[in-house]
């Protein structure tokens, strides 16, 4: 028991994307680094990012793509720097409309590249080591795992959040923050599907349709995916954090779905009238063909209290108003999210007011750093959470290197 024969310059708890980036940058600068992780391989969660394809960053970058309970003015555009960092490791990229992926279309490419560099730098890696405690000493810190103890001058907690338990989620970072007198916000699952018992799913289960989803003040466009017990897809994932917090506070509202997001209400009204005038003998379903998925159209027509075989010649302005409203403001009841285990990221975390955002060092504990998901920053879909993992690790690395 014990690795007291070494005193590390830094012990990094968590060998995910942020922890690996930090370890590499510090080891390149000559620091003695050790990595602890509760999994049996480094970067295990990287393998699941982007549905296994690993969308690692995005050309569109700014604070508007991130959420926090605190100001995000410190967010920097590091997407080009991240691309360069991975290219040095042998990762060739491809860009799809501003979204960056490895050319192999495999998340494993990025995980393996990071692991290869860690091995090349002879960084000490201790896997299957679940962090249990951190103790401040006169000389630095003692990090305790369920297997061992590690002496170090500094500690970085990069242990992630509560999401995806099967891939190694952990409460460790939050517990340690509380131990050292730091505040942690409420936590909710984000980038996660939603559950619903809405009757519309009887007809829409299995349907995919382009559109926009609104929840309170949040709105996002993309492909909406309906299933028998809920709803998912890009726009759902992007707004799911708000449903997660409302579920926690027991104040859920309904979703508003816009199935014709490419038209305004007036444009849609004119479009429908033009279709009706073009062939007044056509049934309503035939006349509305091509506006959106046919199953969606059938449901919208039903919700507008119009029979599907009704000739459009028998419809009046009120019917058109109802159709426009239901196409543009289709209301769907939800029962919550699919929980942390099915989420890609945790919303909330260690309060940013507790952190020096230039160095990622805890204000109350010199030598204690936090990076990545454990902090109160989460991004929408599109490579933003890995970019945050890189940005925070880069800030910590630069600060530590400057003082040694």
UniProtKB/TrEMBL annotation:
Domain RsdA/BaiN/AoA(So)-like Rossmann fold-like: 9-398
Keywords from the named record: FAD, Flavoprotein, Membrane, Transmembrane, Transmembrane helix
Keyword Transmembrane helix: yes
Cofactors: FAD
Pfam families named among the record's database cross-references: HI0933_like (PF03486), HI0933_like_1st (PF22780)
Keyword Transmembrane helix attached: yes
SUPFAM superfamilies in UniProt: FAD/NAD(P)-binding domain (SSF51905), HI0933 insert domain-like (SSF160996)
RsdA/BaiN/AoA(So)-like insert domain ranges (all copies): 189-345
Spans traversing the lipid bilayer: 12-36
Top-rank lineage group of the source organism: Bacteria
Gene3D superfamilies, alphabetized: FAD/NAD(P)-binding domain, HI0933 insert domain-like, Translation factors
The protein's name in its UniProt record: Aminoacetone oxidase family FAD-binding enzyme
Organism: Pseudobutyrivibrio xylanivorans
